[in-house]
From TrEMBL, chain A:
This is Hsp20/alpha crystallin family protein. Pfam families: HSP20. Residues 35-147 form the SHSP domain. InterPro entries: A-crystallin/Hsp20_dom (IPR002068), HSP20-like_chaperone (IPR008978), Small_HSP (IPR031107). PROSITE patterns: SHSP (PS01031). Belongs to the small heat shock protein (HSP20) family. It comes from Leptospira terpstrae serovar Hualin str. LT 11-33 = ATCC 700639.
UniProtKB/TrEMBL annotation, chain B:
PROSITE patterns: SHSP. Residues 1-20 are annotated as: Disordered. This is Hsp20/alpha crystallin family protein. SUPFAM superfamilies: HSP20-like chaperones (SSF49764).
Length: 147, 132
């Protein structure tokens, strides 16, 4: 796809490098990436049930203790910093597609959250935040008295 | 006009549920960092949501194929309010040349990142005697 190691830098080799790169870019455009621009990092999904909201976001390559989660009323903010790994001297970089840097997302939820019972789990680079709805905001069933 | 009986409805629902299970998952091209040192090639591949046991790495001839299988959660997550990403499997292919020790490659998965290290072969040095 992108390089042929230990080959001399001949014109033919350059042709194959370019060919592989184009081939890979074409495949990537067909297959699509899950990650958009850096301004939209991390990508999030929001699901709701009557009793809670679930926010999931893709944060591969970060430690759980590097993520800050804050909740106030119906606002959720996710903040952190993804550090690029240090490379040994003389390391050649062939590709760098993985996002590194600071990120900050704020999401407005459809209801106020019971801040004391928020549960966050981080597994395999996916953050799952369960945000229960406040008891007083839950829909109440009104019983009808027959007249 | 066709009307479905209760039993027929259940059968149709069962069939459509089975169909959903069999539908192939969407395939994504994961982001990759590729580094090369004097001794090895290093690949860092983003595969969030993929467990270590669901990763497949194969090296054949000069082709490196990386695959990650995503397992959707068992329980329903509720109504979708916002969807900035979709879930699916990962696939990426590289041409890496033949001067590598594929049998000595090592891989580890941490926090949704696959790290693969492939040692390179040392270039052969052949001393040629000059005939007198």
């Amino acid at each position: 796809m992108l390089f042929r190691i230990l080959d001399p830098q001949t014109k033919a080799n350059q042709f194959w490098r370019d060919f592989d790169r184009l081939n890979d870019e074409l495949t990537r455009s067909i297959l699509d990436s899950q990650f958009g621009s850096a301004s939209n990092f991390p990508p999030v999904n929001v699901y709701t049930k009557e009793e809670e909201a679930l926010v999931t976001c893709l944060l591969p390559g970060i430690e759980a203790d590097q993520i800050d989660i804050n909740v106030k009323d119906n606002l959720l903010s996710i903040h952190g910093k993804k550090k690029a790994e240090e490379l040994a001297e003389g390391t050649e970089v062939h590709r760098r597609e993985i996002f590194n840097g600071e990120f900050h997302r704020t999401l407005e939820l459809p209801f106020r959250v019971d801040q004391d019972h928020v549960l966050a789990k981080f597994t395999n680079g996916v953050l799952n935040i369960h945000l229960p709805r406040r008891e007083e905001d839950k829909p109440k069933k009104v019983s009808i008295i027959a007249g | 006009m066709n009307t479905l009986t209760k039993e027929n409805k259940e059968e149709v629902l069962k069939q459509s549920a089975e169909k959903d299970v069999k539908t192939p998952a969407r395939i994504y091209s994961p982001n990759v960092d590729v580094f090369e040192t004097e001794a090895e090639l290093l690949f860092r591949v983003e595969m969030p949501g993929v467990d270590q046991s669901s990763v497949e790495i194969s090296i054949e001839k000069d082709q490196l194929i990386l695959e990650g299988k995503f397992v959707p959660p068992a329980e329903s997550r509720g109504q979708v309010r916002l969807a900035e990403y979709r879930e699916g499997n990962y696939f990426r292919k590289f041409t890496i040349g033949k001067a590598i020790h594929s049998d000595k490659a090592t891989a580890k998965m941490k926090n949704g990142i696959l790290e693969l290290t492939i040692p390179k072969m040392e270039p052969k040095k052949t001393k040629i005697e000059i005939q007198k």
